[in-house]
Automatic annotation (TrEMBL):
<dbReference type="InterPro" id="IPR006620">
    <property type="entry name" value="Pro_4_hyd_alph"/>
</dbReference>
<dbReference type="GO" id="GO:0006449">
    <property type="term" value="P:regulation of translational termination"/>
</dbReference>
<dbReference type="GO" id="GO:0031543">
    <property type="term" value="F:peptidyl-proline dioxygenase activity"/>
</dbReference>
<feature type="domain" description="Prolyl 4-hydroxylase alpha subunit">
    <location>
        <begin position="74"/>
        <end position="233"/>
    </location>
</feature>
<dbReference type="Pfam" id="PF13661">
    <property type="entry name" value="2OG-FeII_Oxy_4"/>
</dbReference>
<dbReference type="InterPro" id="IPR039558">
    <property type="entry name" value="TPA1/OFD1_N"/>
</dbReference>
<keyword id="KW-0223">Dioxygenase</keyword>
<dbReference type="InterPro" id="IPR051842">
    <property type="entry name" value="uS12_prolyl_hydroxylase"/>
</dbReference>
<protein>
    <recommendedName>
        <fullName>Prolyl 4-hydroxylase alpha subunit domain-containing protein</fullName>
    </recommendedName>
</protein>
<dbReference type="GO" id="GO:0031418">
    <property type="term" value="F:L-ascorbic acid binding"/>
</dbReference>
<dbReference type="GO" id="GO:0005506">
    <property type="term" value="F:iron ion binding"/>
</dbReference>
<dbReference type="GO" id="GO:0005737">
    <property type="term" value="C:cytoplasm"/>
</dbReference>
<keyword id="KW-0560">Oxidoreductase</keyword>
Length: 233
């Protein structure tokens, strides 16, 4: 299955209005308007797919337009401008910000997480789930050459100041691909924190040092194959 941890940072204090209104009745016509134009057209481009697939399979780093692939310490891809329609993304953020969230605390992590987005009765969220479950999942499976089942784990996580998620490899149940859709503010930079830190491994396959740090970028999708060496925080 695929697991996504979307970092909807500080949204509890940043509720956004949909087209200047809190009227939930706007959901349906907006969803109809966006139905064919939610995600980037790159995922429908044969040339984009070829570039990604060749570099992924050959373990070759690349930065090309909205595509970035790093290969060390393990392969991680980022697609910029992932949601094609910014109004949809803002409406999605608003809908998710209104969901109940539970604070999770233990030695490994401290952050807030919503209920599963698969169980939410919101037309906008349902449309987002649908496109991830179909087009995005099929594209990742095909281009990364990873067989996926029909299970998707999808929720929103909010990390406030001093929250954290320590080093782990994401090997839970049958998870094969992990991905993050960043919706942190457009002005977010490295000094604001929240980097996705990637670890190399020692001769025993255990995490050693941070060798890459990926800064959150608004409306970018980061994803990677879950393996014995996909240690990150």
């Amino acid at each position: 299955g695929i697991e996504e941890m979307e970092e909807f940072r500080r949204l509890k204090n940043r509720r956004l209005d949909i087209l200047g209104s809190d009227d939930d009745s706007l959901d349906e016509p907006l969803v109809k308007r966006w139905r064919s134009s939610i995600i980037t057209e790159d995922l429908s481009s044969a040339s984009f797919e070829k570039i990604f697939q060749e570099n992924w399979s050959n373990n070759t780093p690349i930065k090309h337009d909205d595509l970035e692939l790093i290969t060390s310490p393990f392969k991680v891809c980022r697609i910029y401008n992932f949601i094609q329609n910014n109004d949809f993304l803002e409406a999605l953020k608003s809908s998710v910000a209104q969901l109940p969230a539970k604070r999770l605390v233990n030695d490994l992590y401290t952050y807030q997480q919503t209920i599963s987005l698969l169980d939410v009765d919101s037309d906008i969220i349902k449309q987002f789930v649908e496109v991830l479950s179909t087009k995005v999942k099929a594209w990742m499976s095909r281009t990364m050459n990873i067989e996926l089942n029909d299970t998707i784990s999808l929720s929103s996580a909010c990390y406030n100041k001093l929250d954290y998620l320590l080093c782990h490899d994401d090997q839970i149940d049958d998870r094969r691909i992990a991905f993050i859709l960043y919706v942190s503010p457009v002005t977010w930079d490295r000094e604001d924190g929240g980097t996705l830190d990637l670890f190399d491994v020692d001769e025993h396959g255990l995490p050693r040092n941070i060798t890459q740090s990926i800064v959150p970028v608004y409306n970018s999708m980061v994803f990677f194959e879950v393996t014995n060496e996909s240690y990150h925080q």
